[in-house]
Amino acid sequence: MSVKKPHHHPNSPCLENLPFDAEVADRLAGIFKQVGDPTRLKIFWLLCQQEECVTNIAYLLDMSSPAISHHLKSLKLADLVESERKGKEMFYRPKSNKPARLLEKILSQTFE
User: Fold this and answer.
1) What CATH number is associated with residue 92?
2) How many domains is the chain built from?
3) Strand ranges in the chain using DSSP code E only, listed in sequence order
4) Domain presence at residue 9
5) What 3-state DSSP class applies to 13?
6) Does the keyword Acyltransferase apply (predicted)?
7) Domain coverage including residue 100
8) What does the pLDDT profile of the chain (112 residues) look like in tens digits?
9) At how many degrees (to 10) do helices 22-35 and 98-110 cross?
10) DSSP class of residue 20?
């Protein structure tokens, strides 16, 4: 399929050559939206250091447990964080998928 553009620029990439579709673009935008929040970025960074429970994250960030739970839920929906129950507590850690590993790498490179 050829896309007719209003202006022709030689050697310019065309929409038909985009490496992803609208669904992938929406997913990426959702991930960037979640990590665009400073609190979520701090939480994710903490979890990259070690898995942690809500109570400890709340203490470290001087926030309430319900607020931390809300942010963790958003990070889970963005597929960046996973949880595991250990006894009575739920522990969180970064997922081992590509987006989470990439974000972890960006953070480690930024704060080295």
Assistant:
1) 1.10.10.10
2) 1
3) 52-53, 81-86, 89-94
4) no
5) coil
6) no
7) 21-110
8) 566 667 666 666 555 667 777 887 888 888 888 888 999 999 999 999 999 999 999 999 999 999 999 999 999 999 999 999 999 999 999 999 998 998 899 888 887 6
9) 40
10) S
